[in-house]
Structures are given as C-alpha cells and as structure tokens.
Design brief:
The complex is a heterodimer of chains A (189) and B (473). Chain A has 189 residues and is of the alpha/beta class. Chain A is built from 7 helices and 10 strands. Chain A has helices at 3-12, 17-23, 41-52, 69-74, 90-100, 116-129, 183-188, and strands spanning 14-15, 30-34, 56-60, 66-67, 82-86, 105-109, 132-137, 150-159, 164-171, 178-182. Chain A starts with a helix and ends with a helix. Chain B has 473 residues and is an alpha+beta fold. The chains are: A alpha/beta (189), B alpha+beta (473). Strand 4 (66-67) of chain A pairs antiparallel with strand 12 of chain B, so a sheet runs across the interface.
C-alpha cells in the first residue's frame, strides 16, 4: 500500500473518546484490558463504569495500595455501586463472585496467570449469569498471544506529550483501531 | 511527618476506643449467657462479661436493617437479658460502673463512653473500687490465675483501705494523677494491674472464658485416607449436616466458628480453628454451604503449609488425612424477640442474608466506601460496613483535580531526583484560618513520572519535601 493511502487508512481508524464510549454496552462477554500500573489506563475503565452506572465489584491483588474513593466519585462513579476486595490470591474469589454476587460487572485486577480452563469458566459464567467479567492485566496485550474466550481485548496507556489516553484494540474491533482522549474528556465524560 | 502535617494526621480521625464488652446479670438458664457473644467470662457469681469483638459486625448489620445503630439494638434487646446491662471498652471499668449503678439500685442499659458514665466514673467512690477489686481477686482465685501476683492481696487491700481513711480520700479521682508503677511498688503487682485497668483505654485484660456446654461435635474416619478436598468434601458435608441437626443448635442458634481437628496419616493431629466472618445459622442450606466454603479455605491453607513443611523435611504424613473431629467452637442465641424486630424488613433481611453468605464464601472482606465532606486527601472517605448506606449529599459528584484511583495508606517520602517530569495539579489546604502556622496547612499536588516510567501522585509540602501519595493506575 502506498504511504499516502496507509496514512489515510490510519486516520480512519482514529476515533474520539465519545465514539469509544458509545461503542461500549453492558454485554455478557469477557473483556481483557492491558494496562500496566502507573499508566493511567484504569481511568478509562472507570469512565466506562460511569457510563454503565451499574453495581460492580473490583478485586485487586495488591495490598500496598487502597482505593481512593474520592477519585472514583469525582470521576462520576457512584460509590454505593461499588464493592472492593483486596485479595492476594484472587482467582478463587473471582470465580466465587462470578457465580454468587449480584454485581453486573466483576473486575479482576491481577497479574495472576489465567489458564484456558479459567477463561473457559469465565466466559461460560458470563453468558449464563449475564454479567461482564472484566480482566485487567498489568501488562500490554498482544495479538500474538490470542485469547479466544475474551470478546474484547484492549490496551490503554497515557501519552504525556499529547496529554492523551490512548486505547488500542487488540481484538473485538478492527485490529489497530485506536481511540484518543484527553484526561479532561475522560474526567468530565 | 510530625508537626508539619498536623491537619493531615491520619491517626486523628479514628475513634479512641470502641465498646467491645458487655456486662450483664445472669437470669435463669446457662444458655442466656450466650446472647451477645459466644465468648463469656464469669466475673462474680451473677455478673458475666461477654466479648463483643467476635460478633460486633453481626450486631451492626442487624441494626442497619432497622436503620438503627448497634447501640439502639443492644438497648432494645438487653431488656430481656438482664435488668442492668453495661456496655464498656474494658471489663474492669465496666464492672466499676456496674457496681456503682447496682449500689444505687439503677436498672437499664448503659454505655461507659457517655457523658453520664464519665461523670459517674470521675466521682466513683473507693468503696466501689475496693468491692470490684475483691471481686476480680475472687474471680482469678476461682480460676487459679495470677497466683503469684495476687499473693496477700486481701491484706494489701485492707492496708490500702487504712491508707485511704488516714488520707481522707473518698473518690478514685483523688489518686488519678498518681503513676501506676508507684502504687504497684507500694501495694503489689495485682494492685498495679487493677489500677492501670481503671484508667487505661487499651484492651489489656486477662480473659478467662467460661466454657460453653453441650457444643456438638462429630468424629469421622475416612474409608480411604486422602489429601484432596474433593474426596473429603462429601463426608465433611454430611458432618456439617449432622452438626446442624444437633438439638443444641436448634431454635435460633447461630454458630460463630468451628474447630476442625484433622487426624493425619502418621497419627498427628492438626487443629484448625475457623472463625466465621458472620455467625451462621447452620439449619439453613446457604449457611451450611458458606461454612463448607470456610472449611475449604482452611484446608487449602493447611495443605500449603504441609507442602512447605514437607519440602523442609519437617512432616512425614504427606498431607494425607485419615479422619477428623469437627466441633462447634461457639454459638450465640438470636432470640425470637430480636428476630421480630426485623419482621417489617423482610426484603432487606433477604439481601442481608445474601451479603453475609457471600462474605462467608470468600476469604477477604468486601469493602464499601463513602466520601466525606473533607477535602484533605486520604481523610476524605470512610469505609462502610456491608449494608451501611452512604450520605447521598457527600456522594454527589465533586469537582477536583486529577486524583489517582489508588492511594497509599500513608504517604511515602520520595527523593526529588526520582521524578523525571511533573505537572502541577492542585493545592490542597485545610482550615488555615484556625492555625497559627499557615505554612502547615497546604500541600501542592503533582502528577509525576518516575524514572521507572510510572505515573504517580506526589505532593510537596511547605518545607519542599516530596511525598509519594498515590498511583495512577
């Protein structure tokens, strides 16, 4: 493909933050999100939760940090919708919550390796119980190591130079499709 | 951080001490003792103390259903338990207050942290103190505790009484300023201990549990020794059902924990104590399931310890279980009149039961938060218990600078040369007009990129020191 056409094609794949939010719906599918700690990617995830305005449970495997509820609230997430669990070995808890809890979204924020059996369970329970398991990974996802059980796979990170959050699709939308959002946009919706 | 962050002091928001004991009089049957908690201590022939720390969350949840505080609920429920009930943060202080009220012939439910109780405590007579001290002496004597410390205590008390008469001291506040070790040196260590309990807020008390009778237990030998949960599950499930059908757990008894003695292949016994996050009514299938889940967590933990010990060559039984003895560790009675308090809120009762069962099925606590109308980072939220509802006004969306989703429990000092680049976000100040040191009252918050590439939330205080307070995840 000539260089000019490639540039035009890339332009077509660039979308705004509003486009990104519109494209999200609360569906019973597993979602995987690559966002290293210290990269601001979870801000975008929390903004999506703000859009859903549904009960959610967030499981975190780190014990050195705690939730800053004021920040969640200032992002527009009602705190009464959220419940949080700090669990050093979170996989079992995650599975129990998928089966038992009444939240519509269960976020698994952990570096624990999920095997294909685990993913199969997650995808199956999501369909059966009509909930959305959202797996946050503290590293970037690649298309080389695919995941047939996750409907959507995204990477999210912050670019200081442009003061923008960048979301790039690994699976579920056209590969390489990217959304850009300023922190101001993410914060104010 | 000392004085410089006086208004950002993280210790200042916590309550000094909580009510964690209740003193009451035994009425008729022994089962009445286990109304507030399964952990009870006999202080005198008819005065008992219950340790509420095991069941505090249970009472809080029960109260929240009604829109009450746990104190309202205790007040309502204690009428049927004892004519005089004292809720306190320390059993000896509770006993002093209890004796003072009994002497006046006062009945009712009292809390030692109320203004009435504090005033009463200030003017407490030495007569009451000496009476309570003799009761504690008799209590420990009966249980053969603190034998060396209590030596000649009766004569010491008589000597002390003569000293009080000689000095014409009537109230305990007259000696409040005297250091406890000075009294201890003169009147012995048990006296010093009692004196320190009189004014101390810390939870230091020699507890002597009054054993519950008739707690059911079940012993099982496996047909095939096993180390796998799946293979022991069915036998264990049957045992839990057997325990739940025991006559002593009928009516409205909630189990607070189990003791599981595993008998290993080499004949050694491994004792596992399981304390439930909330008391469970084993007659209900969902609660049985939750109990089994707790047993599975305990078994998994022991399995990990065994495999580690095996690597170190400390065990020989290879984690193989031959059988076990499962027993109820404690129970509390939830009376029909307490249950009737919740008849109007049947729907909430259901959701509470669900949350209790869910909490019992996972290992770590489920946390809920609400923000508070304070703009000092780290102090602008509080943790709620499971069914507590947040103040809606405080939970409206508020405009602030870009704050991180995760913060550290306490800020960590950071070297400025660790910071690669930064951008100013906001200046946070507190009630500067109330302070004489204006420079103490502000922090400048920045979003900073560290050398390792992480974006973090840092602040600089007036003395130009840098602290790392949160993580932009």
């Amino acid at each position: 493909m000539p260089a000019v056409s490639r540039s035009i094609a890339r332009q077509k794949l660039k979308h705004s933050w509003q486009d990104f939010l519109v494209s999200w719906a609360l569906l019973p599918h597993a979602v995987e999100w690559g966002t290293p700690h210290g990269g601001l990617g979870r801000l975008a995830a929390v903004s999506v939760l703000r859009k859903f305005q549904c009960p959610f449970t967030w499981i975190l495997d780190r014990s050195d940090v705690q939730i800053n509820p004021f920040a969640w609230q200032s992002l527009g997430v009602p705190l009464q919708n959220g419940q949080f669990i700090y669990e050093p070995q979170p996989l079992k808890t995650f599975k129990t919550l998928l089966l038992e809890c009444s939240s519509s979204v269960v976020v698994f924020d952990s570096r624990v390796t999920l095997r294909s059996g685990d993913w199969s369970f997650i995808a199956q329970v999501a369909r059966q119980r009509k909930i959305m398991p959202w797996v946050m990974r503290p590293f970037f996802l690649t298309a080389q190591n695919g995941n047939p059980f996750a409907k959507y796979r995204w990477n999210c990170f912050y670019q200081f130079e442009s003061d923008q959050l960048r979301l790039s699709c690994v699976k579920g939308a056209p590969l390489g499709q990217s959304f850009y959002a300023s922190l101001h946009e993410v914060f104010d919706g | 951080m000392g004085e410089t962050l006086s208004l950002f002091d993280y210790g200042s928001s916590s309550a000094p001490h909580e009510i964690s004991f209740v003193l009451f009089q035994k009425k008729t049957s022994a089962e009445d003792l286990y109304y507030f908690s399964p952990d009870v201590m006999q202080l005198t022939d008819d005065i008992f103390a219950a340790d509420l720390s095991h069941t505090l969350s249970f009472w809080k949840k029960k109260a929240q259903l009604r829109g009450w505080t746990e104190r309202d609920l205790w007040r309502a429920c204690s009428q049927s338990v004892s004519e005089l009930t004292v809720f306190c943060s320390h059993p000896f202080q509770g006993l002093l207050f209890f004796n003072s009220l009994s002497q006046r012939g006062v009945n009712g439910c009292f809390f030692t942290d109320t203004i009435f109780a504090k005033k009463n405590y200030q003017h407490l007579s030495w007569h009451i103190w000496l009476q309570s001290a003799r009761q504690m002496q008799a209590c420990y004597e009966q249980n053969h505790r603190l034998v060396r410390e209590r030596k000649n205590f009766s004569s010491i008390l008589n000597r002390f009484e003569r000293f009080l008469n000689r000095m014409n001291l009537a109230q305990i506040e007259d000696l409040q300023s005297v250091e406890f070790f000075q009294l201890q040196r003169r009147f012995g260590s048990f006296f010093g201990t009692l004196w320190s309990w009189t004014f101390q807020a810390e939870r230091t008390f020699l507890w002597n549990s009054y054993q519950q009778n008739l707690l059911p237990q079940k012993k099982t030998w496996l047909e095939t020794p096993s180390s796998h949960w799946q293979q022991i599950f069915l036998d264990l499930q049957r045992d839990v059902e057997v325990l739940s059908s025991d006559a002593s757990l009928q009516k409205s008894y909630y189990v607070t924990g189990l003791v599981w003695n595993l008998i290993c292949y080499d004949g050694e016994t491994q004792r596992i104590e399981i304390s439930f996050p909330h008391p469970l009514n084993l007659s209900q299938p969902e609660h049985q399931e939750a109990a089994l889940k707790q047993l599975s967590f305990a078994f998994e933990k022991v399995g990990r310890e065994w495999s580690q010990a095996q690597k170190d060559g400390e065990v020989t039984h290879l984690g193989v279980v031959m059988g076990w003895e499962l027993s109820v560790a404690g129970k509390i009675q939830v009376r029909s009149e307490t249950l009737s308090l919740f008849s109007e809120v049947r729907f909430e009762q259901k959701s509470m039961d669900e949350s209790i069962v869910l909490q019992s099925k996972i290992q770590s606590p489920i946390r809920h938060y609400a923000s508070e109308l304070a703009h000092v980072p780290g102090l602008d939220f509080k943790e709620l218990s499971l069914n507590e509802t947040a103040d809606t006004k405080a939970n409206d969306k508020v405009k602030t600078g870009l704050r991180p989703l995760f913060i550290f429990p306490e800020p960590k000092p950071i070297e400025p040369d660790e910071i690669l680049q930064k951008r100013f976000l906001e200046r946070v100040s507190s009630c500067w007009w109330q302070s004489q040191k204006l420079e103490d009252q502000w922090r400048d918050y920045y979003i900073c990129q560290l050398k390792d590439g992480h974006w973090v939330w840092c602040y600089q205080n007036f003395s130009q020191d840098w602290y790392w307070h949160g993580l932009y995840s």
